[in-house]
C-alpha cells in the first residue's frame, strides 16, 4: 500500500475484525438485533442464547487463550488485542469509520508507505503515529490529527520540514526524524518553539546536518526539550560538540542516549559563551591495517642502482565516502 489509509485497511484484514469471533455474524446475531431494538437494555442482561450463538465471555476467551486458533501472533501490539476485544463486545462499531475512532496508537512499519494522506484525519483520538522504515519523503501537516503526541518517521526519505511545519500538531511531545535526508543549514529554522511548543524529545540522528551553531540557536527556544539525539550527523564530529550542547541547553537531560550528570555540566560550564571554539571542520585519522592483492612497493626498492631493467612505479589511491 502506498498510503496510510490503504495500509490501515490491510492491517484490519490481518486482524480479522470482520470474522469470527469478532465482527457481525451468526455467532452474535440475536444479541446485535436486541441492541438495535432496545439500546436501554443493560449490558449484562442476557437470556438463553439461540443455537449456534456464543456469549461475549466465550468469544473473549477464544481471543485471549494463546493456544486458540483465533489468538493473535505474539508480535502483535496490545492495542490490536484490545481492539478485537472491543469489537466482540460492540461489533456494531465496525460500521463506517467508527473503528478508526477507537485507535489511539497506530504503527505501520516497513509497509512501503509513501503518502501521509488525508484519510489519517478519521483517527480523531490518535496520539501515537509510528511510520518507521517506509518511503515517506513529504509529510503534509494538515493531514495529521491535532491530537498527536508522538510522531515517529525514522528510516524514511524526509529531506525538507517545510510541509510538516505548516500546521504541526500543537500537542506533539516526541518528533522522530532519525535516518532521513535532512541537511543544513536550511532546516534548522523549522525546529523552534513556534512550531513545537510542547516538544520534549527530538531525534535528528543520522542525517546530514552541519551547522551546529545555527541548530543550537533554534533549539534553545524549545523550553520543554529534555531528550536530544544528533549522533551520526557531520556536526557531531566537531571536537567541542557535546560540551557546547550541554552548556547551551541547560534543561537537557539526555544527549545521544547518554545521561547528562551535574559533574559533566559543571565541566563544560561557560563553553556556550565561546562560539569561536566551534570550528566547522573535523580531522579524521584513518589507519589501514592490511591490504591484499596489491604489489608490495618494498619489493621494487631492492633493485640495484646500476640495473638496466625498467623502473616500475606503483601508486595507490584510497577513497572514503562520508
Helix and strand topology:
Elements: H1 4-15, H2 29-37, H3 56-64, H4 78-89, E1 105-107, E2 128-130, E3 150-152, E4 174-176, E5 201-203, H5 212-219, E6 227-229, H6 241-248, E7 254-255, E8 258-259, H7 262-267, H8 297-300
Parallel strand pairs: 1-2, 2-3, 3-4, 4-5, 5-6, 6-7
Antiparallel strand pairs: 7-8
Overall number of strands:
8
Distance between the termini: 33 Å
Helix content: 10-25%
Rg result: 29 Å
- Main structural class: alpha/beta
Tally the helices: what do you get?
A: 8
State mean pLDDT (0 to 100 scale).
85
How would you sum up this structure, described in words?
The chain has 322 residues and is an alpha/beta fold. The chain folds into two domains: 1-27 and 57-103, no CATH class; 104-273, Ribonuclease Inhibitor (Leucine-rich repeat, LRR (right-handed beta-alpha superhelix), Alpha-Beta Horseshoe). 21% of the residues lie in helices and 7% in strands. The chain is built from eight helices and eight strands, in the order ααααβββββαβαββαα. The chain has helices spanning 4-15, 29-37, 56-64, 78-89, 212-219, 241-248, 262-267, 297-300; strands spanning 105-107, 128-130, 150-152, 174-176, 201-203, 227-229, 254-255, 258-259. The protein has an eight-stranded mixed beta sheet, with helices on one face. Helix 3 (56-64) packs antiparallel against helix 4. The longest helix has 12 residues, at 4-15.
